[in-house]
# Entry
Amino acid sequence: MQTNTEISKYLNSFLRHKIKDIANRGEITIDENGFVNFNDLLKFATESKKYTKEDFLTVINNDSKRFELKGDNIRAVFGHSFKLENKNFTTGVKYIPKALFYVVKNKNNIDNILNNGLSPTRGRNCLFFSQVASYSFYNLKVDVDSMIKDGYIFEKYENGLIGVEGNVDKKYIYT
# Structure
């Protein structure tokens, strides 16, 4: 039996990264918002991993910040390694707090980030920040005011995360 964490990782990987290649081969349709038909997703998932519809629904219902189910369609809410034409899951932030937090899971990465800045990982286009400090991990602060003055554009996602495209220079990050 697969754990919810394993199923969530599979679903994240599929909807954020693998789906674009499958769509390019004409084997599945993905719309401009990143939605795919849930039954089409199941066809691919059950061929490779023996996941069931119930497995996915359990994960989706327990992790609603990562996935969105709308009618017969599903998508990952953020973290895609390909550009979406219409990111209607952003809200167009009008107010940004003075500081955002970049959550670091591994303490060994902090010095590297402070010395080199941030870059999206795994082929992603965006970096994501939280408005709330994590109690489980390490938090680096982000100088939002200076970033805005220098032309960075922040987008607020429906799940509460704040995203910015591209790299973030080390001068905007502090402890």
User: Anything to note?
Assistant: Helices lie at 4-24, 38-48, 53-62, 110-116, 144-149.
